[in-house]
Amino acid sequence: MEEKKQFGLNDVVEMKKPHPCGENQWRIIRMGMDIRIKCEGCKHSVLIPRKQFEKKMKKVLIRNEEE
């Protein structure tokens, strides 16, 4: 069984493909059925379906410690 990747709001994640600006760090700024991520380099934001996001995310780089 595939392990479920854990991520949360304001975490910085690495995606499998870098953004055209060259940066590969994205901050999660909205979560729901769709997930909005913002490029840490050029600040462009993208809304992608959760299933697609889970497939394209490589790992969580910085966890937001807010509980």
Layout: helices, strands, pairs:
Layout: E1 12-15, E2 25-30, E3 34-39, E4 45-49, H1 50-56, E5 57-62
Antiparallel strand pairs: 1-2, 1-5, 2-3, 3-4
Describe this structure in words.
This protein has one helix and five strands. With 67 residues, it is mainly beta. Strands 4-3-2-1-5 form a five-stranded antiparallel β-sheet. A hairpin with a 3-residue loop joins strand 2 and strand 3. It is globular, with a radius of gyration of 11 Å. 12% of the residues are buried. The model has no long low-confidence stretch (mean pLDDT 89).
List keywords for this structure.
single chain, mainly beta, 1 helix, five-stranded antiparallel sheet, 67 residues, globular, 10% helix, 40% strand
Rg measurement, Å: 11 Å
What is the percentage of strand-forming residues? 35-45%
Biggest sheet, spatial arrangement of strands = 4-3-2-1-5
SSE succession: EEEEHE
Spans with pLDDT under 50 lasting ≥5 residues? none
> Taking all residues together, what is the mean pLDDT?
89
Structural class: mainly beta
Count every helix, treating DSSP H or I runs of 4 or more residues as helices: 1
End-to-end separation:
29 Å
Query: Helix content range of the residues, please?
Result: 10-25%
DSSP strand tally: 5
Shape: globular
The description of the largest β-sheet is: 5 strands, antiparallel
